[in-house]
Amino acid sequence: MHCKYLFNGIEMSAYPMLLHTVACLWYVFFWSNFLSNSQTNEEDWDPKYRDINEMGYRFLTNWNLFFQTLFFAGCLFHDVMKILNGPNWLKLGSTFQTLLSLAFSSIILPTGIFVCVTFWLMYAYDREIVYPKIIDSYIPYWQNHGMHTTILPLILAELFTTRHKFPSVSASLVLYLGFGLCYAIVFLETYIEKGRWVYPLFGLYSFPIALGIMVFLFVLKLSFLFVGIFIQNMYWGKDEKKQYRKPIKKSS
């Protein structure tokens, strides 16, 4: 069932705006609570948790949360642009929509799927290699799900409610590789600076094997980019074919 309405002569679906509003409200609530965790007295922290907290911005989970927050805020802003429909808004909105779609296909979607899937697989195998039990004493369990579970239904809902115009595969790959390179630099710089890995998993192996695992995970994350493109084409491709299908003229 499609829920659409006309605003200033423009047909819009209510579902994307509803999703973007809920997502933004959720992240305002999440970040306000999550950041308050760091305001506790550090002298009372367990040394193991202090080492984990020190990594902060180096966790891919936090990168994903930050970019998802920016993305959904951008989506809501774009919805407002379409509603206002003022001078030059549509031209600007078209460019902004292209940027949102590029970010969604190359960073938001593959990273969100990767973080959720790999985290819970490793957590089920041995949580100490990815999310040590000591963290539960400082970060509520619901915030753990906010970082590693909620992210998936949000981006899947975005995929199925908003018809993004995915860019070419090459354009998505360029941005994906750029994002991956930036994180790889931070990841390796942390090991060089502190002599320990961001995630305990890598500390279980020698440096060459740890690099091999890193490359494997990078390729695995890349596969989720193509999964997203495939789902996008399968789900929205049918509507596009109907939209651009030419009527057959009946012979007289």
TrEMBL record:
GO cellular component, alphabetical, reads: endomembrane system; membrane
Q: Mind telling me which InterPro entries this protein's record contains?
A: ADTRP_AIG1
Topology with respect to the bilayer: Multi-pass membrane protein
Ranges annotated as spanning the membrane? 12-35, 55-77, 98-125, 173-192, 204-231
Q: Where in the cell is it found?
A: Endomembrane system
Which reaction is catalysed here?
13-octadecanoyloxy-octadecanoate + H2O = 13-hydroxy-octadecanoate + octadecanoate + H(+); 9-(9Z-octadecenoyloxy)-octadecanoate + H2O = 9-hydroxy-octadecanoate + (9Z)-octadecenoate + H(+); 13-(9Z-hexadecenoyloxy)-octadecanoate + H2O = 13-hydroxy-octadecanoate + (9Z)-hexadecenoate + H(+); 12-(9Z-hexadecenoyloxy)-octadecanoate + H2O = 12-hydroxyoctadecanoate + (9Z)-hexadecenoate + H(+)
Q: Which UniProt keywords apply?
A: Membrane, Transmembrane, Transmembrane helix
Family listed = Belongs to the AIG1 family.
Which PANTHER family does the record cross-reference, listed alphabetically? ANDROGEN-INDUCED PROTEIN 1-RELATED, AT02829P-RELATED
Name this protein carries in UniProt: Androgen-dependent TFPI-regulating protein-like isoform X2
UniProt source species: Sipha flava
Q: What is the lineage of its organism?
A: Eukaryota, Metazoa, Ecdysozoa, Arthropoda, Hexapoda
Designated gene of the protein: LOC112683016
